[in-house]
Amino acid sequence: MEEYLIEINNADIYQNKMMVLSEVNFNVKRGEFIYLIGKNGSGKSSLLKTLYADIPLKVGEIKIENYNLKEIKKREIPYLRRKLGIVFQDFQLLMDRTVNDNLNFVMKCTGWKDKSKMKDKLEEVLTKVGLQTKGFKMPNQLSGGEQQRLSIGRALINDPHIILADEPTGNLDPETSEGIVQLLKDISQSGRVVLMATHDYSLFTKFPSKTFRCEYGKVITE
Q: How far apart are alpha carbons 120 and 184 in whole angstroms?
């Protein structure tokens, strides 16, 4: 039997009380890399925000990581988000501390206590995202691509099954963007779901994958 990590049935997606997508239906199984495409304002970001419970679900049903988003309690939302890796276009790094301390901060906030395990996890994640020699640097000493790699590393700290990436290449040049997509594709091949919102159509030809298109208030599977 297929194991779906995201199940969406007849969900309406809102942004500031205005419905941007109606009757959304799709399932995503372990190991899938999916592009969520569409013009600016088509509802991509609102859909991702609904998945990590930043926008409440009013109509329909969404199950993600065993949470029913229609019934989720406010106090449960931080626990849902610990099970997800969220990557933003603008990196959202802590600029006043080093690469290592950015990752250590996330571990401390999510209940890590064992210093030896934290050190091992830090090295593992930095190696995975290609920053193993950059731990002592401050974020402003990194290139844009390296900053985004750090934000992906931060998303991987708690071994999430699902990575939600909202325009992760939006502020990057084409060559750097390709490196980020390759990294996200590699992550999906380790059995994780990667759902990546983008309007950079050049990436689809280079890295073809399953695509959901937000258009005319609907999500169309391509």
A: 22
- Cβ-Cβ contacts under 8 Å for 2 (sequence gap 6 or more): 27, 29
Q: Which helix (H) or strand (E) holds 18?
A: strand 18-29
* DSSP category for residue 141: G
Q: What is the pTM of this model?
A: 0.92
Count H helices and E strands in the chain, helices first.
Answer: 7, 10
As a whole number, the mean pLDDT across the chain is 92
Geometric angle at alpha carbon 216, from 213 and 221, rounded to 5° = 25
Indicate left, alpha or beta for 2 from its phi (over 0: left) and psi (-120 to 50: alpha).
Answer: beta
Confidence of residue 222 (pLDDT cuts 50, 70, 90): confident
CA distances from 31 to 183, 195, 207 (A): 14, 11, 15
Q: Is 221 helix (H, G, I), strand (E, B) or coil?
A: strand
Tally of CA atoms within 13 A in the half-sphere of 197 that contains its CB: 23
Q: Count how many residues are written for the chain.
A: 222
| CATH architecture group of domain 32-56+84-221 | 3-Layer(aba) Sandwich (3.40)
pLDDT tens digit sequence for 62-80: 999 889 999 999 999 989 9
Determine the 3-state secondary structure of 6 from DSSP.
strand
Q: How far apart are CA 34 and CA 150, in angstroms?
A: 21
Please report, for residues 31, 37, 204, the alpha-carbon distance to residue 173 in angstroms, rounded to integers and kept in the order given: 27, 19, 16
